[in-house]
Protein: Alpha-1,3-mannosyl-glycoprotein 2-beta-N-acetylglucosaminyltransferase
Amino acid sequence: MAKVFCDFRFLLLVAAGVFIYIQMRLFATQSGYADRLAAAIEAENHCTSQMRSLIDQISLQQGRIVAFEEERKRLEQECGQMKSLVQDLERKDLQRLTDKMQVPVAAVVVITCNRADYLERTINSVLKYQRPISSRFPLFVSQDGSDPDVKSKALSYDQLSYMQHLDFEPVQTERPGEIIAYYKIASHYKWALDVLFYKHNFSRVIILEDDMDIAPDFFDYFEAAATLLDKDKSIMAVSSWNDNGQKQFVHDSYELYRSDFFPGLGWMLVRSIWDELKENHKGRQFIRPEVCRTYNFGEHGSSFGLFFKKYLEPIKLNDVKVNWRSMDLSYLLEDRYSMHFANTVKKATPVYGADMVLKAYNIDGDVRIKYKDQSDFENIARQFGIFEEWKDGVPRTAYKGVVVFRHQTSRRIFLVGPESLKLLQIEES
Structure:
């Protein structure tokens, strides 16, 4: 019995050993599986991390690809723009080369300071007739000072060249109370003419101010008159203006006159005269039209609207198409004009005494009225309504002391000074 019990205990011990061995093996197996699982999870995590990194790299590369594509498109657009610009520059260079082969009649310069709205109207008026003949009349704008609106307006036009005059020197007037602006304007004019004549080498310059409209035949008129300037050195300048050019005082768009008075307001000068003169016109005369080729709309400016309502606003701007190329202007040359003008004055009917306006109105044909002195001239001029003003002893528009204007019809009125008949060699009636 004891032996059986002992065998049973032995079997139990063996079974327990086997059980423990199996448990240990099972534990070892489970540990191995756990390690493998952990390794698998770690590998999976690493793989996931690498995949995410790869995805991020792919996304980054895609972003770069998109950026490169956008940059490529931008560069293509810029290349297209540059190509267009190069073509445009080549075209303009070709145009400039072509233009240089044509000798300009005259440079046209618009003198301006601080009136951007006026400047715009003037430039548009000039370009309306200058564009088809720009090579013969290149356009410039010369600004005195640094007004930003004027500079911006001038630079907004690619059909013109811009110049800027900056003068900060204090102005010394000759007499107390004189308007400083006039000295500034004179300094600007001199600078602009020097630049155009000596730097750009133009032989003629047409000067306009920034408050002017021009007539349709403005450029034809000056081109025709250029021959006079070249031939006759007694002519200082050709002007497009008549101070007595109000509608009631003009009639003939073809009529031109010589004058001892400088009309200004749209005039042409040659370099040879500018070389010699600079400050003094040395007794030279001017050519002016009967009907103005410029219209001054500048009510507000350095002259503070002086005379505007009475004398400038009613000015008639020529609207008649004149074929200047067919015109013979040789009668305006100095050796012919004095006789030509004298014969015209000689034929006029003399009028004396009071009520000169009424008497003149009742006479058919031209009329001649003699004045004694400046005061008498001013009285007669006031009756007719023309300019009374004299400058440096010369009435506005006068030639050898004679002022001529139309009066409501085609008849001409000649106001003749005390020395005029002698200068014109006319015997007094």
In short: The chain has a mean pLDDT of 85. Residues 2-100 form the longest helix (99 residues).
